[in-house]
Amino acid sequence: MILTALAAAAGTLWGFRVVGTVESTVMKRMEAATPDLAVNPQMTGTLVMKKLPPIVTNLAAPANTWVRLEAALLLEQKAALGADPLVGAITEDILGFLRSVTAQQMEGAAGLRNLREDLTERVAIRSKGVVRDIVIETLVVQ
């Protein structure tokens, strides 16, 4: 019984020592890493998110498969003021593209990455470089 109590006390002390060491190490590393954070000047302050209207369409294959895409465009603040015609053209372009895609092409992480790359490329071409990126908020396939 005494041996059990000694073992429990020793284990508790050892646990407090380990927790203290881990906390101090983590705090030192966080303090050392904070000044090294670099901010990309292209991605601060001047970019605006412009939501696209939800896009609902059928896919090329299988026949009864539908997709709903909600996305937003990341563009310069100056260009966002008159972006309504551009948003309409991009929405139509994405709609036409999604009609040519099959459900198998969008399967898995690689399919989603390929879809995002294709959409980003189409948006960049349609906007002539005004739109920096596209953010896929939701993608539902049924």
Automatic annotation (TrEMBL):
Pfam families named among the record's database cross-references: FliL (PF03748)
Subcellular location: Cell inner membrane; Cell membrane
Transmembrane segments: none
Chief place where the protein resides: membrane
Membrane-topology descriptor: Single-pass membrane protein
Record's keyword terms, sorted: Cell inner membrane, Cell membrane, Cell projection, Chemotaxis, Cilium, Flagellar rotation, Flagellum, Membrane, Transmembrane, Transmembrane helix
InterPro entries assigned to the protein according to its UniProt record, in alphabetical order: FliL
Family: Belongs to the FliL family.
Its biological purpose: Controls the rotational direction of flagella during chemotaxis.
Name of the featured protein: Flagellar protein FliL
